[in-house]
Amino acid sequence: MSDRTAQRAAAAIASVLTVDALFHLSWATGSTWPADDAESLSYAVLGTDAPFTPPVVLPLAVLLLTAGGIVVAQSRRPHRLLRLGTLAVAGGLCLRTLAGIYWLFAQDTGSAFYWLNLGLYTPLCALLCAAALRVARHAAPNVREDAARWEDAVRVR
Questions:
Q1: Which residue from 5, 104, 129, 156 lies 20 to 30 Å from 43 (Cα-Cα)?
Q2: What is the spatial distance between Cα 65 and Cα 14, in angstroms, rounded to a whole number?
Q3: How many CB atoms lie within 10 A of CB 67?
């Protein structure tokens, strides 16, 4: 994969994860946007009643921002540890995708969560998982290959 392709995929992943982190940070302040109240928000986002309190949502925001940073770093400066981190991000997105598929059969089809999961959450996680796997495959350029190309370019002149 080219550097540009890896960087574009990483930027897309980081953008979505950052927007999600910003939602979590907003919810940590007590906001329930885009829902009317905390219970409606919980049922729309998670399909169940769960607290949207700072001790719950702040660590998630930090995790989302860290994940985006790791993927971007792997796309720019490939490294074994960054690749493992990017694979962990892909694994988390894969698990969310699989859970979303399960929830399609386990949730009430009349709920907001069902339709958000069907049309947004699960497809987006599947796409981001595939993109993260592509970024994880991105490797550092081989120094010998670069030197050989440079020598060929010099010989041509």
A1: 129
A2: 8
A3: 25
CA distance 43 to 20: 17
| 126 and 97 Cβ atoms separated by less than 8 Å | yes
3-state secondary structure of 144: helix
φ/ψ region of 30 (left if φ > 0, alpha if ψ in -120 to 50, else beta) reads left
User: How close are the terminal C-alpha atoms of the chain, in Å?
Assistant: 29
Integer Cα distance of 98 and 75 in angstroms: 26
Compute the average pLDDT of residues 64-73.
Answer: 98
What confidence category does residue 140 fall into, taking pLDDT thresholds of 50, 70 and 90? confident
143 phi/psi in degrees, rounded to 5 = -60, -40
- For 87-107, how does the pLDDT look when each residue is reduced to its tens digit (9 = 90+)? 999 999 999 999 999 999 998
